[in-house]
Write a structure and sequence with these properties.
six-stranded parallel β-sheet, 13 strands, 15 helices, alpha/beta, about 400 residues
Length: about 400
């Protein structure tokens, strides 16, 4: 039986990285490639992982993405119906590449990651599945709401952008043939906003290697808190690190003076090196295979603390930490998309109680071990990339058979 031909379009080059979206797409591709012929079109500035993708996909097409902050883009946003996020991903070259592939008449399905690529796709009778990894307008809305001081002067302009973002995101949820969310909470919101009862669910997962501890690596001999492993250019991650440093770390270090905080992730030094001290370590994680790759920090830390005020999607770093038996302390919004029991698989508490909860867990090794063991068992049972890819492939089959 011939494999179906799938055209997949992503706003990045998928590979195992400190960015959840890229990691997600990479592992789904690895599993889907055995059952489908996938042509991948990436709108990207980066070529990291390209050689590996060429082994997985039938063909990989790279379209170079320009600078984010460009005067033409800002002016276009100001005088067009599109929000700045969509403007950043409008590209004549990308449109031509998609049109060229579709003109070949070989594709049974189009898979698009993230709604803001949709304006580049021409009208077609080929079924399209749109997978939205997070509710973008909710993330940006929270960002605008959090702005204070003299920066509030630009809030009216930002609110206009949020309004446009919400309009177009909802528009594509309504108009695209099939739409998928990555968490149950996102699915419910998308269903409500789009007035659809057929939103699919394709959850995030974890790579199998995180269940296999690296040899000769043990916990630090001092109480250690990890914030990461994250791409610090993503506003939810940078906000979380700032909140931890300002709202909770002073309380924690006062209660446990020997504690150390590790802020680890892509662009972490650029964003947070000014906070570096003997008790605050700011660093990039090595690429996979390095001495201190993400798995190293998951294994050596005592707990992961994540102050998160806004929901949306689900966090691959949480799955990786849980698989590594690292207990997590976070808010209800932070743990959205993961079906856990409080104080069994993680510690979920109100924002104001995060420092107290972290201190209690740092002082209780038995509870840390209990939560870490349960968390690992949960993700191993319910959140593998293999299971997620099977769900997605079943959706492919349904759409292709229509």
């Amino acid at each position: 039986m011939n494999k179906p031909n799938i055209l997949m379009i992503t706003p990045y080059l998928p590979y195992h990285s400190q960015a959840g979206g890229q990691t997600r797409s990479y592992y789904l591709l690895k599993h889907l490639a055995s059952k489908n012929n996938i042509t991948l079109i990436c709108f990207t500035r980066d070529k990291t992982g390209l050689s590996e993708l060429k082994k997985i996909c039938k063909k990989v097409i790279l379209i170079k993405r320009g600078k984010t902050w460009d005067l033409k883009k800002v002016l276009f946003t100001a005088f067009s119906p599109y929000p700045f996020l969509v403007t950043n991903y409008l590209s004549p070259e990308l449109k031509i590449a998609i049109q060229t592939e579709l003109a070949k008449g070989i594709y049974q399905l189009i898979h698009t990651e993230c709604f803001y690529l949709m304006p580049n796709i021409p009208f077609t009778s080929i079924p399209i599945i749109l997978v939205d990894q997070t509710i973008e307008y909710a993330v940006y809305q929270h960002f605008v709401e959090s702005i204070k001081g003299f920066k509030s002067l630009i809030k009216p302009f930002l609110w206009l952008d949020v309004f446009k973002l919400k309009y177009w995101e909802t528009y594509y949820w309504k108009k695209t043939h099939t739409v998928a969310a990555v968490s149950e909470d996102d699915k419910k919101l998308m269903s409500k906003m789009a007035h659809r009862t057929d939103i699919k669910l394709v959850p995030n997962g974890v790579a199998e290697r995180y269940f296999k501890p690296k040899k000769n690596i043990s916990k630090t001999n001092h109480p250690s808190i990890l914030f990461g492993i994250s791409n610090m250019k993503w506003m939810q991650n940078s906000e979380g690190a700032r909140l931890l440093l300002h709202d909770f770390w002073p309380t924690i270090i006062s209660a446990i003076p020997q504690a150390k905080l590790y802020i680890i992730g892509r662009y972490a030094p650029q964003a947070f090196s000014k906070y570096s001290s003997p008790n605050i370590i700011v660093s990039e994680a090595d690429i996979d295979g390095g001495d201190k790759d993400p798995q190293y920090y998951y294994q050596t830390s005592w707990l992961l603390l994540a102050p998160i005020k806004s929901g949306g999607g689900s966090r691959t770093k949480f799955f990786e930490a849980m698989a590594s038996q690292l207990p997590i302390v976070t808010t209800k919004q932070g743990m959205e998309g993961i079906n856990i029991k409080n104080n069994v698989h993680a510690v979920i508490c109100p924002y104001s109680d995060l420092a107290t909860s972290a201190i209690q867990l740092l002082k209780d090794k038995k509870q840390r071990d209990y939560i870490g063991h349960n968390a690992s068992a949960l993700v191993k049972k319910d959140y593998s990339w293999g299971k997620s890819s099977t769900k997605l492939n079943n959706i492919y089959k349904q759409l292709i058979s229509l």
